[in-house]
Amino acid sequence: EVQLVESGGGLVQAGGSLRLSCAASGFTFDDYVIGWFRQGPGKEREGVSCISKSEGRTYYLYSVKGRFTISIDNAKNTVHLQMNSLKPEDTAVYYCAAIPRAIASALGAMIRPDPADFDSWGQGTQVTVSS
Description:
Blueprint: E1 3-7, E2 10-13, E3 18-25, E4 32-39, E5 46-52, E6 57-60, E7 68-73, E8 78-83, E9 92-100, H1 101-107, E10 120-121, E11 125-130
Parallel strand pairs: 2-11
Antiparallel strand pairs: 1-3, 3-8, 4-5, 4-9, 5-6, 7-8, 9-10, 9-11
């Protein structure tokens, strides 16, 4: 059974940093694509970043490029999202999600991740950026 548990959210001032973690179990990163999504107040859920270990590829939402970095810690079976230079508009609940690699490839998840395509989700962690 795929299980994902996020941690690391919190309250930070604009310009600050946070590192989110997604502890994974029940699968291997070689077989899945992991995505970070967020949902702000009154907004739709959007894909922030994805990583495919098997392809050595990453995806970033345009508005976070250069500020966020996604990475895999194989020893701890954890995916991190390092978020720097945070802005108030980054305020949202952040979720990690997983999709089998073959399905991700067929659906183009690494090009434009659609939350409807990801079938395993964590519970989310709140990130609040104050101005």
